[in-house]
What we know:
Elements: E1 8-11, E2 17-26, E3 45-53, H1 62-78, E4 82-88, H2 92-101, E5 105-110, E6 120-126
Parallel strand pairs: 3-4
Antiparallel strand pairs: 1-2, 2-3, 4-6, 5-6
Amino acid sequence: MTWPQISYVAEDHKGRIVGYVLAKIKSDDPSDDQDEKDKKAQPVHGHVNSISVLRSYRRLGLAKKLMLLSQEAMLSVYKAQYVSLHVRKSNKAAIGLYRDTLGFEVASVEKKYYGDGEDALSMRLNLTTK
């Protein structure tokens, strides 16, 4: 299943893609492909799989805009209660965006989440009390 309403691209004046956000909706629906450790019922929520902005277009607010568009659609289209994401513990710029600019909080640390052994911060933002 796909969720085109919550994924966005940013284009430059020539129509070239310079950024994107890819997200999905998760729920307690048994047909969802949840991890074995994540089998307990969860409310409908969004999850950001990937976000990226071309280096020469960073610090222009594109990542913030992409995230806000996706979050707004998660809430309005799917009635998502919150949005989650994972970020490398060493990615200070992304953590600053998520925590300081967008209001995410660290929910937990997932040890050795990435293939190279680096830990991930599991972050979460409540959408229903914004």
